[in-house]
Specification:
Number of helices: 7
Radius of gyration: 20 Å
Number of strands: 6
Strand order of the largest sheet: 1-2-6-5-4-3
Shape: globular
Order of helices and strands: HHEHHEHEEEEHH
Length: 192
């Protein structure tokens, strides 16, 4: 029994190590931001991590729900999900963030591409993606730094299919969001 438990823990630690090799953890990115800006301090508020085992359990639970449920296919495509939010205790002027950060360099060296870098008054956001050797979108990492909150999201899996299924489920909503329109239906103009 003891040998089984030790073997199981070894497999778990190996799988978590391999998972970290694909992308830095949300905690590693938080520490990198604090390293780059010594006056920055963040206090963890929430942390959710679903690895392969917990995502498998989630998939099983979703299958048990009778009928068709919106978003039901998403857990089948994702094998690792990590979300962390931090309360900002102190932060330098965000306008001082210039150039590439170390986590950006690390992600680029590991084959990641930055697809979005947004900068608004008092906030910065980055979205990184990585494809596998087969050209399939496998990883997504989102960093959103506001004056009062830091949010980090990492998703690994078959993301091209997950996004395609989400868009296919509600194509009109997807088009409206891309165009920046509200989700409320517009009044139809009289035909004439």
């Amino acid at each position: 029994m003891k040998r089984t438990v030790i073997s199981f823990l070894a497999v778990l630690s190996l799988s978590s190590f391999l998972g970290c090799a694909s992308a830095p953890s949300t905690e590693a990115v938080r520490w990198e931001i604090q390293r780059r800006f010594p006056e920055a301090r963040f206090e963890r508020e929430e942390h959710i991590h679903f690895g392969r085992i917990s995502m498998g359990l989630l998939r099983g639970l979703v299958r048990m729900v009778p009928g068709k449920v919106e978003g039901q296919a998403f857990p089948t495509r994702v094998h690792d999900l990590e979300v962390s939010t931090y309360k900002v205790r102190s932060l330098p002027d965000l306008d001082g963030i210039q150039g590439e950060t170390r986590f950006e360099q690390q992600l680029a060296q590991a084959g990641w591409s930055m697809v979005v870098r947004a900068r608004d008054e008092g906030s910065h956001s980055w979205i990184f993606v990585r494809s596998g050797q087969d050209g399939v979108l496998r990883n997504l990492f989102v960093v959103d730094l506001q004056q009062d909150e830091l949010t980090l999201v990492r998703i690994d899996g078959r993301l091209d299919k997950a996004f395609a299924e989400a868009i296919a489920a509600r194509p009109r909503d997807a088009v409206r969001k891309v165009k920046g329109e509200s989700e409320e239906p517009r009044p139809e103009s009289p035909a004439g």
